[in-house]
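To the team - thymidine-5'-diphosphate complex, inputs and output below.
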Amino acid sequence: MLVTLEGLDGSGKTTVWEALQERYPDAVFTREPTNSWYGDAVYRSIEDDDADPLAELFLYTADHADHLSRVIEPALERGGLVISDRYSDSRFAYQGATLEAADGHGLADPLEYVVDIHRPFSIEPDLTIYLDLDPETAAARAGTTNKFERAEYLASVRDNYERLLERDPDRFVRVDATQSPEAVREAVTDALAAAVDESH
Ligand SMILES: Nc1ncnc2c1ncn2[C@@H]1O[C@H](COP(=O)(O)OP(=O)(O)O)[C@@H](O)[C@H]1O
Ligand SMILES: Cc1cn([C@H]2C[C@H](O)[C@@H](COP(=O)(O)OP(=O)(O)O)O2)c(=O)[nH]c1=O
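Output:
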């Protein structure tokens, strides 16, 4: 079973992901960008304010392809629970927004385009927990350290997440990330426990 955590920078994904490790000690905990050299390339691009948006999309997608074959697919084949801090929806929402800001880079609908390039090879999560937070709080919590963490940009990323929730309501569970860390953790744990129960 594949479970992903999504949300804006600073929404509390990593805090929750760490708490879940105590709760599910046998699960495989992973993240995107990964810790491979593809992930290193992604982080180089994040630091480059002039990175080409399409080139950046393909770097993230290369990291995802490697993540699938090296980590996700083997773990799912073993029948395990896999919990990923960010996954494809981050690309749909963030690179969709970056491409949109670059006048669509000649694409009629950047978000749809990013979804489409994943379709032939990617694996859809069984459950995606979306930590919902307003862009201002997200930027303040994240510390606005890179180009993706600015409130204005995060507002367009959030609009894209809303589109994704609308098109796929059965896969997503929305959690109000303005709550205390304890309340967020409890809501996430409840959603995950319900999904794990249902899969048995
Ligand atoms: N529910 C919460 N309320 C207030 N602050 C939080 C909450 N969850 C996390 N934080 C804090 O916000 C910052 C970003 O959290 P983090 O888990 O790293 O988010 P993300 O992985 O989504 O970027 C950290 O300083 C963390 O301690
Ligand atoms: C996985 C992924 C991350 N990102 C962005 C979100 C973050 O700003 C940045 C690094 O991700 P991450 O290290 O998860 O940041 P955070 O813990 O602050 O949420 O990369 C994308 O734009 N596309 C993607 O596909």
